[in-house]
Structure formats: structure tokens, C-alpha cells
């Protein structure tokens, strides 16, 4: 039974990794390195270019501005989960998840008299 739980957890983790996207315009070095095919040197090149000349407009802009990124390389990286520009639906998901992260640390609003409580009995 324990082996089934471990295998299921591993499969879910792998499935989540397969569909995780990283936006090239907002990712840090660790996020970029999470994409298969981007190592420390390429991540640094992307970050340096983005800092020097602003965000990437699309995949063609990325391949033109970052040395060593041809069209086929960018296509392969997109298949691995790299989102370029605002057209990627996954990029919006990653951006929304990043925007919600700081809110998790905020203090909860105090309860008011009109707040409803839900009680679940077993």
C-alpha cells in the first residue's frame, strides 16, 4: 500500500512538472534553470539581455537577442515549458500564481458580525 502511495505521488509530481511554464520575461535564474536545456550560462545570458534591453516581445525576439538561441532551440524550450511574451496562456498562470504568493503572508482580516461560519459534522 505504501509503495502505491509513493508511486502515485511521484507520478503527480512528474505530471505537474511537465505542464509548468516559466515566463522568460519575469523568471529569475532558478526558474529559467528549471527548464530542460537552460543551464547557468544561458540563464545568465537571458537575464543580462532582459536587464539591458527590456522584455522579450516573442520567440523570434528571444532567438535574435540571445546568442546561441536559434529558432529550433527556442521552439524546443517552448515545448519544455518556456513561455515568451504575453501570448502564452501558461505565462498568465505563472504570473497570477506569483502575484498571489505575497498575499498568503498577509494578515487575515478580522471577522465581522456578518461573516458566516460553516460547520461540517461527520
Automatic annotation (TrEMBL):
GO cellular component assignments: type II protein secretion system complex
Coiled coil location: none
Origin: domain of life: Bacteria
Span of the signal peptide: 1-20
Annotated keywords: Signal
GO biological process, one term: protein secretion by the type II secretion system
InterPro entries per UniProt: Endo/Exo/Phosphatase_dom_1 (IPR051675), RuvA_2-like (IPR010994)
Name used for this protein in its record: Helix-hairpin-helix domain-containing protein
